[in-house]
Specification:
The protein is about 25% helix and about 35% strand. The protein is built from 2 helices and 8 strands. The protein has helices at about 1-30, 135-145, and strands at about 35-45, 55-60, 60-70, 75-85, 95-100, 105-110, 125, 130. Strands 7-1-4-3-2-6-5-8 form an 8-stranded mixed β-sheet, with no helix packed on it. β3 and β4 (about 75-85) form a beta hairpin. The longest helix is centred in the first third of the chain and has 28 residues, at about 1-30. The radius of gyration is 22 Å and the shape is extended. The N and C termini lie far apart (about 85 Å). Pfam families: MlaD. It comes from Parasedimentitalea maritima.
Amino acid sequence: MSHNTTEVLVGGVVLAAAIGFAVFAGQATGLSRGGEDYQLNASFRSIEGVGVGTDVRLAGVKIGTVTNVVLNPQTFRADTGFSVLQGIDIPDDSAVVVSSEGLLGGNFVEIMPGGSPFSFEPGDEIEDTQGAVSLITLLLKFVSGSGEES
């Protein structure tokens, strides 16, 4: 009888841990925030290292996620959609930049706020964008000495 009770208790602990992981995963990916965000769009020359689910940050704080990335065949730019938490009003003269967490870190989308008293509406497109800077290209320029005037 004691083996049966132990098995039930261990099973309950495993089930509780699985539910805890599922709740954590839902919160981490933003699935639990149904309807609490709005969509903005931007078009980038290069969005290297950014995909669906990448963080969108303002002042280093996560305020949303990238929801879609598609290539525009007319402009050859990466049209990107991202969600922003409701209640965070982004000034309509803000810029969007693909930033890196460091030398070995991943990329994220950073919003650089402007000073306009007017804000973007849901579905608006942010025109002022700066794509990803390739670390390999920068290193090659440094090593080869190109761009250096003597």
